[in-house]
User: Fold this.
Amino acid sequence: MMTTLKYLSLLPLVLIGSLYVSTPASATPILGSDLASFTVLGASTVTNVPTSTIVGNVGVWSSGGANAITGFNSSPGVGVSDLQVTGGSVYAGGALAQSAQGQLTTARNNLASLGIGTALAADLSGLTLGPGVYTVAAGTTNLSGALTLDGGGNANAAWVFQMPSRLITSPNSVVNVINTGSGAGVYWNVGSSATIDVNTSFLGNILALASITFNTSASDLCGRALADTGAVTLDQNNLSGVCMDTLADSTGLSGGLDVTSMAGEPDVVDFLPFVQVGGDDGDRAVPAPATLMLLGLGLAGLGASRRRQN
Assistant:
């Protein structure tokens, strides 16, 4: 009888602990799932000079209803195949493209919430940068040579580049990502438009307020071109939201950051905790800090209930 009463008296506190765990909060990647499915997404138009090679969806969604795509096969409102596109389809309007555009605006705002970070000069060439948030000054070019992003052995390394004005590269420039793994993320949050010049070997996700232009033979083999209000213009380019080698599982360098959402509260953007590349847990991302906090509160509630009964 005493044992039964003991466990009955624990029940209210167990319920309190479970409420902490079930608080309506969720931690999700900073690129929503619909947005992440697109390697190329425009708002006004998508224009392509064949032949380009795109891995992932290509699409456009315009509130004005034009949804114009040239240089790819397309049909209004539905996804269609194109020989230039693998691992996805071409969407001229439709619900998926519309949802992705909404998620793009949210992602840009969430990146902006991380602040200015470390201020850098306009040209990033010759720099080796660890994970973090950087603000890049405006200039005639932001990359005239090679930029190296060194994850320092963190499989969850993330770089956020706040570009208050434009993003401009020079011909034959290069972005390298080293010493990181499957949880990594690279984000270029551009305040106006981006121009990736001839033969540039770029990496990362370009989230531009206005337009994005890839000049002849420029590439982004691990990332995306996502334009919030303007056009994406391609010219015999190679873009892929599916990466290779050590970044193969990074879903197009869209990791490294989680967004925690709670009803009635602003989104909170967190850097994922350090996970050693090739460690015992592999390159597996771990739960976001907010998720761990909620779990801890629930366990703490259970622990407190047991101490009171001893």
Remarks:
- The longest strand covers residues 146-154.
